[in-house]
Design goal:
CATH topology of the largest domain: Rossmann fold
CATH class of the largest domain: Alpha Beta
Distance between the termini: 69 Å
Shape: globular
Helix content: 25-40%
Number of helices: 20
Low-confidence stretches: 512-539, 692-696
Number of strands: 22
Structural class: alpha/beta
Length: 696
């Protein structure tokens, strides 16, 4: 049992109950902004804006500062958030903006520790680096304190727990932070957002270590459902219930602050820039340079920028997050471990809806060390839910029969699906071993010389074949689309009725939901956390009906615009030729910006006659397959994380790879060989898709 008590109630009220200058170490991880709903009124983290959230925490931590001893230390683990959940969203820099305002409020910032999670949650994002770390801000009341400086990077895995509270930080993180303080027997440790009581559990264990400390702990928690967990982990019996106190706070206001020196304008490549500033002054000049007309006129609207700073100040961590008001979006703050320290590199893009930025994540993926073989013959696919989001009215179905399987691994190849509208259809399934390659196997070839094109349609620049130097994507020079022969045969065998549904199979759609025993069961979606295991346990495996090919929307819009011009039509004419419900849809098919969309298969059928579409082009737009939605390794490798261990001379090459256009690499023999190798891999993948064996 650990010496201490639990204060059950609002954090502000609980802090006011404590004696001033009594706490040696405060260590906590408060609710992150808009991350989870803990189920009680007035909870922290549900404020309307990040500015209100920061303002509220400042008031709470001001009260906490009064309770710290003069030499006390406050460890604050707080994660960042994106402004929106989807799309080209801006990283808000909440931890560092909070730190800046806490300094203004009287705190001393002693350190910023980077907590890197080697077993971080995987992510499917393709337009930025996956989040793999969180900062731990270290504050004190004065420069004379019990904190001892050590290496500012902690590599500590996430810790699995048996509780529904999915925001538990690992015990090893708590013990590592406490080990950086010169603690004495009888000192008090405080966690004002105790959650499941991890801080108390660590303090309890410290009593029995090789060099034991007899410490006291005070845990503050508002969520009643956590009290039993805390007492179980800590053995604390004293629980004091408190009444809530009213308190007010104001949203913070952040403003850009620049160096008074002349702006530094980096204009080396129109597609993007990578530059590491030597110090804070140079970094400020670079950010000033980004706002200049010369910088913005030189670079493409879809350019990507990586600007870092070696000898940084806190203001440098705040600055890029404020560029949202000046036309730029912060996508990542990448941490570079550099010997005994670290420095940040910021990924910035233009805030525009005209085009998406070009970011080639496949070039820097990490190949998985091992890929566990799937034993599909042991899986029961009958009754698996199928979600059709390719129809104007999304529908559900379920697999009622397996017509054929892939010869190499027995995964279903063609299945019968019974839909909720009492129809039955035969559907081709993608093999999970090859799905990513197959969905990108569609080839665009030059209509003049037949060369396979490397770049897709560029809405901002000239579209020229790199081989024959002739115009492509013009009125009479649209690239020719080519599919694999094996894919065509597989699809046509279904479309032509080569396979038949068994006579005993009748429409029988039933929504089958098996009861989940997961710790996440019954929780709102926002409370599941990022764990793929949680998603799989809650939702289970399913099939999704989707496009066979990953089609670039601006490219398809270009094709449709060309066909419209060929037929001397306007969008108004096409709208009038379609049913009334298409009134607000048609224009989006011809847009090459963020507001664009690709026609659904049933829409393409209507457009074929109006635009006199090439039959092959229309057929490709209508191609669909079933893809298994499950937790598995990416075939292309693991998404790169935002924590890198690279020397500076290799860092620029690594980052530059992410934004240079494919045609740039054709001049390099090594890259050309890599392209040829990738092309052969696609052929092999497609062959495997149909169970064909290729021998070279």
């Amino acid at each position: 049992m650990v010496k201490g008590k639990i204060l059950f109630g609002d954090v502000f009220s609980a802090l006011r109950c404590l004696e001033d200058n009594s706490i040696s170490v405060a260590l906590t991880s408060p609710p992150y902004w808009r991350q989870r709903d803990y189920g009680f009124k007035g909870q922290i983290g549900r404020e309307k804006t990040p500015e209100e959230y920061i303002g509220r925490l400042i008031v709470i931590f001001r009260e906490l500062r009064a309770k710290l001893k003069d030499d006390g230390v406050f460890f604050l683990n707080i994660g960042d958030k994106y402004k929106n959940r989807y799309g080209k969203s801006h990283l808000l820099q909440i931890p560092y903006r909070l730190a800046a305002h806490m300094i203004k409020d009287g705190w001393k910032l002693l350190d910023i520790i980077i907590w890197y999670k080697p077993n971080h949650m995987p992510s499917s994002v393709k337009d930025r680096f996956t989040n793999t770390y969180e900062p731990v801000l270290v504050f004190g009341k004065s420069d004379e304190n019990i904190y001892t400086k050590k290496h500012p990077v902690l590599k500590i895995p996430l810790q699995q727990t048996k509780w529904k509270h999915t925001a538990v930080f690992p015990e090893k993180l708590v013990s590592s932070l406490l080990s950086r303080c010169n603690l004495k027997d009888g000192d008090y440790i405080l966690d004002p957002f105790a959650g499941t009581g991890t801080t108390g559990a660590v303090v309890k264990k410290m009593k029995y270590q090789l060099y034991p400390k007899d410490l006291n702990v005070i845990l503050i928690e508002k969520g009643k459902k956590f009290l039993d967990i805390i007492t179980e982990r800590t053995g604390i019996k004293e629980i004091k219930e408190l009444k809530s106190s009213e308190y007010t706070w104001e949203p913070v206001n952040d403003k850009l602050a620049f160096s008074e020196d002349k702006p530094l304008i980096i204009i080396e490549d129109t597609h993007g820039e990578t530059f590491i500033a030597k110090n804070s002054e140079e970094f400020s000049r670079i950010i000033m340079g980004m706002l200049s007309e010369e910088f913005q006129d030189f670079h493409r609207e879809d350019a990507v920028y990586f600007f870092g700073v070696k000898n940084w100040k806190l203001s440098d961590l705040v600055l890029p997050g404020l560029l949202i008001d000046h036309g730029f979006i912060l996508r990542n703050m990448i941490i570079i471990e550099d010997g005994s320290s670290w420095y940040p590199v910021f990924m910035l893009v233009k805030d525009t809806t005209r085009v998406n930025y070009k970011f080639y994540i496949d070039r820097i993926r990490k190949k998985p060390k091992t890929v566990l073989p799937e034993k599909w013959n042991q899986e029961d696919f009958i009754g698996l839910i199928v979600n059709d989001n390719l129809s104007k009215k999304p529908r559900k179905g379920e697999v009622v029969d397996i017509i054929s399987t892939y010869s190499q691994d027995n995964f279903p190849k063609i299945v019968a699906v019974s839909w909720e509208d009492d129809n039955i259809s035969l559907e081709l399934c993608l093999n999970p071993r090859k799905d990513e390659f197959i969905m990108e196997s569609l080839q665009f070839t030059c209509p003049h010389c037949g060369t396979q094109l490397i770049d897709t349609y560029d809405p901002l620049g000239d579209n020229i074949c790199y081989n024959c130097q002739k115009e492509i994507y013009g009125k009479n020079s649209l690239p020719i689309l080519k599919e694999s022969k094996e894919i065509i045969e597989s699809l046509e065998s279904v479309e032509n009725g080569e396979y038949q549904v068994g006579e005993n199979i009748k429409p029988q759609y039933q929504k089958r939901c098996k009861e989940s025993k997961s710790k996440f069961a019954g929780m709102e979606r926002m409370n599941w956390g990022a764990s793929p295991g949680a998603r799989k346990t809650i939702i289970g495996d399913s099939f999704s009906k989707m496009r066979l090919y990953r089609l670039d929307q601006p490219t398809i819009a270009r094709y449709l615009n060309i066909y419209m011009k060929k037929n001397d039509l306007r969008i108004k004419d096409i709208t009038q030729a379609l049913p009334p419900e298409y009134k607000h849809t048609v224009g989006h098919w011809f847009r090459k910006d963020f507001g664009g969309s690709i026609p659904l298969p049933e829409d393409v059928t209507l457009l074929e006659e109006i635009l006199k579409l090439d039959k092959e082009f229309a057929r490709i737009l209508k191609r669909s397959v079933l893809k298994l939605q499950t937790v598995k390794h990416s075939l292309k490798g693991k998404n790169p994380g935002d924590f890198l261990e690279l020397e500076e001379n290799k860092l620029k090459e690594y980052l530059t790879k992410t934004y240079m256009p494919p045609s740039y690499y054709i001049k390099n023999e090594k890259v050309l060989f890599s392209l040829i190798k990738s092309y052969l891999n696609v052929l092999l993948s497609i062959a495997s898709f149909s169970g064909v064996l290729l021998i070279f």
